[in-house]
Design brief:
Pfam families: SBP_bac_8. GO terms for molecular function: polyamine binding. Its main location: periplasm. Helix content is 47%, strand content 2%. It has 9 helices and 2 strands. It has helices at residues 2-7, 18-31, 43-49, 59-72, 103-113, 116-126, 141-144, 153-156, 167-182, and strands spanning 87-88, 159-160. The protein has a two-stranded parallel ribbon with strand order 1-2. The chain is globular and about 50 Å long.
Length: 184
């Protein structure tokens, strides 16, 4: 889950060392009584409706919540920011299984998606950034200009990827995150 990887990674410099992960888990446990819930998408509507005052989430989901709040026009105004310490950058990817029955068609579909006019329409619809620079002139100006969707260089420089983990380390992270969620 995004929250697990984020919460257990950045506070210790994205280290996968057991002691660092344990320290991160204990740090999050300390604020556990102040947290309403852990969920990967419930916060979208709760933020838009004003039922939750703070959430950690995917930028695209938070933009969706902000847009819903604005459309509802009920006085809920959402600000989205990346903490000064930085944040996990997540990348949507298309992958073709090694044993795909029609890999040529899969490649054609990916090539189709990467056409500037196609991916521009996808970004306009989803509010998610894309990695095709030639699409920006074709996109809605408010999406390209939104510093949440396309952060300025100084903010982007603080974004990081969680290092890959082997199965044993992933299990360790999962156990620690479960202990955070359950408060045990």
């Amino acid at each position: 889950s995004l929250c697990r990887r984020s919460a257990l990674s950045r506070s210790n410099g994205a280290s996968l060392a057991t002691d660092d992960l344990k320290l991160a888990a204990e740090t999050v446990k300390a604020i556990r009584p102040s947290l309403k819930y852990f969920h990967s998408s419930k916060y979208i509507n709760d933020m838009a409706n004003g039922d939750t005052c703070l959430a950690q989430g995917y930028v695209g989901d938070l933009v969706q919540a902000r847009n819903r709040a604005n459309e509802a026009n009920k006085g809920v105004h959402l600000a989205i920011f990346i903490p000064k310490e930085g944040a996990v950058i997540n990348i949507d990817a298309a992958a073709i299984p090694a044993d795909a029955p029609h890999p040529d068609n899969a490649h054609k579909f990916i090539d189709f998606l990467l056409q500037p006019e196609i991916i521009a329409a996808v970004s306009d619809t989803t509010g998610y950034a894309n990695a095709v620079p030639a699409s920006k002139p074709l996109m809605k100006k408010e999406i390209v200009a939104d510093p949440v969707i396309y952060p300025p260089a100084d903010v982007a420089a603080k974004e990081f990827q969680v290092p890959p983990a082997d199965l044993a380390k992933e299990r360790e992270r999962t156990r620690l995150w479960t202990s955070v969620k359950t408060g045990r």
